[in-house]
Amino acid sequence: MQITSRTEYSVRALCELCLHDTPQSLRKISEAQKLPIKYLEHLFRQLKQSDLVSSVSGAKGGYFLNKDSKEISLYDIIEAVEDINSTTECDRIENSEYCIGKPCGFHQVWQEIHYDLKDYYTKISLEYIYQKTKEK
């Protein structure tokens, strides 16, 4: 699991929502965070499907967080916008010529790393990230 632009932009956009008590349009988020609006449209569809945000229509409409920022983890965001794949080549390709046996020691190490990262990302809240960004 690496932090891609999808995750980074989603976190930045969600931190922007933390700043405001009212729904924010994608245009406002885009301008404030200097993010491409088309990319945000795609990301917010995914964030909405994952129930991290909701939207309100109308002139004063926009997006808002569905939960308190303390209850949204970095892993929740990653899970919403990324295709999380913790499998190894041995898992993906039956009888891979590069597989040295199932399960091999490497497979176990990669799985442990995946679970450790998931645990770590789960402990980092959006609120924590937001507070860190305010320190600069």
Note down, in words, how this protein is organized.
By secondary structure, the protein is mainly alpha-helical. It has a single domain, classed as Orthogonal Bundle (Arc Repressor Mutant, subunit A), CATH 1.10.10. Helices cover 56% and strands 6% of the residues. It has 7 helices and 2 strands, in the order αααββαααα. The protein has a two-stranded antiparallel sheet. A hairpin with a 5-residue loop joins strand 1 and strand 2. The longest helix is centred in the last third of the chain and has 19 residues. The radius of gyration is 18 Å and the shape is elongated.
SS class = mainly alpha
From the 3D structure, determine the CATH topology. Arc Repressor Mutant, subunit A
Global outline: elongated
* Oligomeric assembly: single chain
For this structure, what is the CATH homologous superfamily? Winged helix-like DNA-binding domain superfamily/Winged helix DNA-binding domain
- Counting DSSP E segments of at least 2 residues, the number of strands comes to 2
Primary descriptors:
Arc Repressor Mutant, subunit A, two-stranded antiparallel sheet, single chain, 7 helices
Can I get a quick summary?
The protein has 136 residues and is mainly α.
Describe the protein's topology.
Blueprint lengths: L4 H14 L7 H8 L3 H13 L3 E4 L5 E4 L8 H8 L7 H4 L12 H19 L2 H10 L1
Antiparallel strand pairs: 1-2
